[in-house]
Specification:
Strand content: 5-15%
Strand order of the largest sheet: 2-1-3-4
Distance between the termini: 55 Å
Order of helices and strands: HHHHHHEHEEEH
Length: 185
């Protein structure tokens, strides 16, 4: 996802302030909540975007909605960006903050696509193997795709390991479809 420089600056400043006040974990959880609210509630995002609702009213609404759910530091930050008329950037700031937090704590997102759900032993084995190979903590996202028939596809960053049966079948099909007939032999 492409992010503006303003988005990155605001996210970095919240991380910096959170580190100073030893509340980085709290701010991370708050931003996870804000990101989930923004992604699941389009009316909330439209409220942030609309110029019809005045800044004072937006601040009042944000206080009502978020005061009991997030820390004072995060709420003050959100109110500050609202006063600066940057509330439209809140969803991107939250996503950028989450990405920067994960980078700071060396957490990698890994997706595992399988035909059937992983059992607990196999999940632990996959996670420990990937953690050893990447020297980082792993956040595993499981995706079920029955068209794989069997095996798995593992994606991390820009790397992909495809050990699925369907890809092997496609490879075999391509090998057999090649015309090995040599003319005039």
């Amino acid at each position: 996802m492409k992010q503006s420089r303003a988005t990155i600056r605001y996210a970095k400043s919240l991380i910096s302030i959170s580190k100073e006040q030893n509340s980085l974990e709290t701010s991370f959880n708050d931003m996870l909540l804000v990101s989930s609210v923004c992604s699941s509630n389009k009316d909330f995002v439209n409220l942030l975007k609309t110029p019809i609702v005045k800044t004072d009213l937006k601040i009042k609404i944000l206080n009502e909605l978020l005061a009991k759910s997030i820390s004072d530091l995060t709420l003050s930050f959100i109110i500050l960006i609202t006063k600066k008329k940057r509330e439209i950037l809140l969803p991107e700031i939250a996503d950028c903050f989450i990405a920067l937090y994960k980078n700071y704590n060396n957490i990698k997102e890994v997706s595992v696509v399988t035909a059937k759900p992983l059992d607990d032993d196999l999940r632990k084995e996959v996670m420990s193997y990937i953690e050893k190979q990447s020297n980082s903590k792993i956040e595993l996202k499981e995706i079920i795709d029955e068209s794989l028939i069997g095996g798995a596809i593992i994606r991390m960053d820009d790397k992909q390991l495809d050990a699925s049966i369907s890809s092997k079948l496609k490879s075999l099909k391509n090998q057999f479809s090649e015309n090995l007939y040599i003319q005039n032999y």
